[in-house]
Specification:
Order of helices and strands: HHHEHHEHHEEEEE
Largest sheet: 4 strands, mixed
Helix content: 40-55%
Low-confidence stretches: 235-242
Number of helices: 7
Strand order of the largest sheet: 1-3-4-2
Radius of gyration: 33 Å
Number of strands: 7
Length: 255
């Protein structure tokens, strides 16, 4: 019964719409001036509006879309940002080094959760394990590594917040870097940042960081393995200790 009543209401509403349209059409037919006014309105308002909307759509579609920065270029840019703060020359991304680091990043993904990823073991590939390769092993021995990071920008920041990982990033002799990354099942990344010193002689030790008058310096020390802070990482201050200022020479570390 409810369905029948609803259907009858729809039929009556449709009939009223038809009558309304019919009445308007009859008035326009009897009154050419009214018809002309409505045509003028359509030409003056509706047509330009249509073309304005069409033009807006066309311009929006033709605008160049901002491309996401590739992870390796993001790492290069942020590393050079930190080096410039410390008064050092910039480094360049080496595609060949990066190829080996991509292999090692995939090795870390394939062996996640095993003893091969415990402690410092990721720095030494085991040739019998899945994903092992000569190029990947070369990267592992000469790189900062991260297992489980949201993006490479975060990895760079965390490495810079530690003492051991910061040291090669601020090497004044550094020329080239390799960057590798791979996605873990949970969506996080493994990351590898390899360092290559060659013939550069422009930079000299020691290097002080944070630099004089540097702003926005983190207040907490970044956790790293092995942990250089006494008392198992507390340093007597907090769970992570304070951010360390370091003055580094090739074979020494003062903080």
């Amino acid at each position: 019964m409810a369905t029948l009543s609803h259907s009858r209401a729809v039929i009556r509403a449709a009939a009223r719409v038809r009558v309304h349209i019919s009445n308007r059409a009859q008035r326009c037919a009897r009154n050419p001036e009214l018809m002309q006014r409505r045509l003028n309105f359509a030409q003056r308002v509706l047509t330009p509006m249509y073309w304005r909307v069409a033009l807006l759509i066309l311009l929006t579609a033709s605008m160049p879309q901002a491309k996401a920065e590739p992870p390796d270029e993001q790492a290069e840019r942020l590393l050079n940002h930190y080096r410039q703060i410390a008064g050092l020359t910039t480094v360049k991304l080496d595609r060949q080094l990066s190829a080996g680091c991509m292999e090692h990043a995939n090795y870390m993904v394939q062996n996640q959760g095993t003893d091969a990823m415990a402690g410092l073991n990721p720095h030494t590939q085991r040739s019998h394990l899945p994903g092992a390769s000569a190029a990947g092993a070369a990267c592992a021995k000469a790189a900062d590594l991260f297992i489980g990071v949201s993006d490479l920008g975060v990895a760079i920041d965390v490495w810079m917040a530690g003492m051991y990982h910061r040291r090669p990033m601020l090497d004044p002799q550094l020329e080239r870097i390799g960057v590798g990354y791979a996605r873990l099942p949970d969506g996080m990344l493994t990351a590898a940042l390899r360092f290559e010193n060659a013939t550069r002689r422009g930079g000299t030790w020691p290097v002080a960081y944070p630099a004089d008058k540097q702003a926005d310096v983190p207040l907490e020390y970044g956790a790293e393995s092995p942990n250089p802070i006494p008392n198992h990482g507390s340093g007597g201050l907090s769970d992570h200790g304070s951010f360390h200022r370091s003055i580094r020479s090739p074979g020494s570390l003062r903080s």
